[in-house]
Amino acid sequence: MAQTITLYVDGACRGNPGLGGWGAYIITESEEHKIFGGEPDTTNNRMELTAAIEGVKFCPTDAKLIIWTDSNYVKQGITEWIHGWKKKNWKDVKNPDLWKLLDATCQGREIEWNWIKGHAGHAGNEMADQLANLGADQTLASMKNLALKAEESSNDKKKDEKDWLLDDPFGFDLMESNEQDESEVLDGMESAHIENENFSTETNNQASTLAPVAVPESSTTHPHIVITPRTKQVYGPRQLILDTETTGFYFQDSDRIVEVGAIEMVNRKLTGSSIHIYINPQKPVGDSENIHGISDAFLKDKPVYAEIAEVLFEYLKGAEIIAHNATFDMNFLNMEFKRAGFSRLSEVCEVTDTLAMAKNKHPGQKNSLDALVRRYEIPQRDRTFHGALLDAEILSDVYLAMTGGQVSFDMDSLSESEQRDAQNARENLPILKLPVIYPSEQELEEHEMWVKQFEEKHGTACLFTK
C-alpha cells in the first residue's frame, strides 16, 4: 500500500521583488525532511510556487501527498485556475514557467491540496516559514561571500598590474643603446600603488558615512524581532513604508499593537531592508483576529512592546514614515512608545499619509488600499488576512505608482493644485553633496617623482606635468 506524506510549503520575500526563500517541511510515516533554498531577486509568489514544486519533486511518485500552503494563489491556481490558463494557452498568466513546471511535476500523482492560515501558530506552517527564511538567509550569505571573493580577486589583480607606461609593452626600449634598469622604478611605483589603494579605501569609508542612518543588519535583542539588512548600497533620506495590526480601532480604549512591519526605500528604490515584529498585547485580540488572522495562542510567547521598543525606535527614528491612514498607525505607535518611556515617534519622524494623497488625487472615489491596487493595476497578492509586512509591501507599490508618472512640460495645461504638486516635487528632490577628495602632501611628492622618472626615461615632457 502506498504511503501517505504530508507537506507544509511556504515562501518568503524581503521586498517584492527582492531577496527570497522557499521551504518545505515533509512528514513521512517514519521520518521528517526539511528542504529549503532561495534566490537573490524574486517575488513572494514565485517562492510559494517553488516551495510546492520542490516539495512534490522530493517525494516518491507513488505516494499520496497531502499538501498544506498558506497561499491561496498556489492552492486555487493549481486546483481551479490552471484549467482556464491551459485553454488560453497561458496567455496573460504571471509566472507561466513555474506554473507549467508545477503542473508537470504533479502529473500522475495523487495530491490533496489544502489551504492553512499563515502565521496562526500552526507548527507545520511555522516550520515551513522558518525554512523559507533560512533559505533567504543562506542565499544572502552566499551573495556576500561571492562579493567578498570578487573584491579580493579585484584587489589581487590590481596589485599584480604593472605600470604600462614604464613597462614598455611595445618594446621601444630595445632600440635604445643606453637601456635603463627599470627594477628600482617598478619597486617605487609598486609601493606608491599600494599607498594609493589604502587612500582609496579610506576615502571610500569616509564616503560611506553619507548614509544618514546605519541600519542594523540583525537583532539579538529578541528572537522574534526580524530585521533584514540592505541588499543595495544606497545614499539619501530614508523612507519607511509602514503598517500595524492591532486588537481594535481605539488606542484610547486600551487597544494595543500586535504586529509592526516596515520596509525601507531610498531614492524611490527598495533597499531590501525591513523590520517585522509580532507583539504580545497582554489582552485578548477579540474580533480583530477576523481581520489579521493573528490568534491569542500565536501571540502567547511573543515579546511585550517594552521589550522591543528600543530596537523598533532606533530603526524608525529619523525616517519619513509612509502609511495608509497614517493617523491610525501613528496614534498607536505614539501611545505604545510613550508607555515604554520613549518620546512620541511623530516627534522624530516625518509622516506621509497615502490615504490623504489618494483622496486629493482621486476625490469622490474609493481610496482604500484594495481600491488603489485595482486602480493602479498593482499585481494581486493574497490578502485573505491583513498582515503588516504584506500590506507595507503592497503600499510601497501603490505609493510609487501614485507619485510616479511623467510631469507635464506644459505647466499652463496643469491645474493650480497640480502645479503646486509639481513645484513641491522639484523642491523636495534630495540634494546630494559629493565629497571633494584632495591629494595629500605625500601623494603630491610621489606624483612629482613619477613624472621625473618618466621624463628621464623617455626624454620628453610628461602629459601629467602640472
From TrEMBL:
<dbReference type="Pfam" id="PF00929">
    <property type="entry name" value="RNase_T"/>
</dbReference>
<protein>
    <recommendedName>
        <fullName>Ribonuclease H</fullName>
        <ecNumber>3.1.26.4</ecNumber>
    </recommendedName>
</protein>
<feature type="binding site">
    <location>
        <position position="10"/>
    </location>
    <ligand>
        <name>Mg(2+) 2</name>
    </ligand>
</feature>
<keyword id="KW-0808">Transferase</keyword>
<dbReference type="GO" id="GO:0003887">
    <property type="term" value="F:DNA-directed DNA polymerase activity"/>
</dbReference>
<keyword id="KW-0479">Metal-binding</keyword>
<keyword id="KW-0540">Nuclease</keyword>
<dbReference type="Pfam" id="PF00075">
    <property type="entry name" value="RNase_H"/>
</dbReference>
<comment type="subunit">
    <text>Monomer.</text>
</comment>
<keyword id="KW-0378">Hydrolase</keyword>
<comment type="function">
    <text>Endonuclease that specifically degrades the RNA of RNA-DNA hybrids.</text>
</comment>
<keyword id="KW-0460">Magnesium</keyword>
<dbReference type="InterPro" id="IPR006054">
    <property type="entry name" value="DnaQ"/>
</dbReference>
<dbReference type="InterPro" id="IPR022892">
    <property type="entry name" value="RNaseHI"/>
</dbReference>
<dbReference type="InterPro" id="IPR002156">
    <property type="entry name" value="RNaseH_domain"/>
</dbReference>
<comment type="similarity">
    <text>Belongs to the RNase H family.</text>
</comment>
<feature type="binding site">
    <location>
        <position position="129"/>
    </location>
    <ligand>
        <name>Mg(2+) 2</name>
    </ligand>
</feature>
<keyword id="KW-0239">DNA-directed DNA polymerase</keyword>
<keyword id="KW-0235">DNA replication</keyword>
<keyword id="KW-0269">Exonuclease</keyword>
<feature type="binding site">
    <location>
        <position position="10"/>
    </location>
    <ligand>
        <name>Mg(2+) 1</name>
    </ligand>
</feature>
<dbReference type="InterPro" id="IPR006309">
    <property type="entry name" value="DnaQ_proteo"/>
</dbReference>
<feature type="domain" description="RNase H type-1">
    <location>
        <begin position="1"/>
        <end position="137"/>
    </location>
</feature>
<keyword id="KW-0464">Manganese</keyword>
<dbReference type="InterPro" id="IPR013520">
    <property type="entry name" value="Ribonucl_H"/>
</dbReference>
<dbReference type="InterPro" id="IPR012337">
    <property type="entry name" value="RNaseH-like_sf"/>
</dbReference>
<keyword id="KW-0963">Cytoplasm</keyword>
<keyword id="KW-0255">Endonuclease</keyword>
<dbReference type="InterPro" id="IPR036397">
    <property type="entry name" value="RNaseH_sf"/>
</dbReference>
<keyword id="KW-0548">Nucleotidyltransferase</keyword>
<feature type="binding site">
    <location>
        <position position="48"/>
    </location>
    <ligand>
        <name>Mg(2+) 1</name>
    </ligand>
</feature>
<feature type="binding site">
    <location>
        <position position="70"/>
    </location>
    <ligand>
        <name>Mg(2+) 1</name>
    </ligand>
</feature>
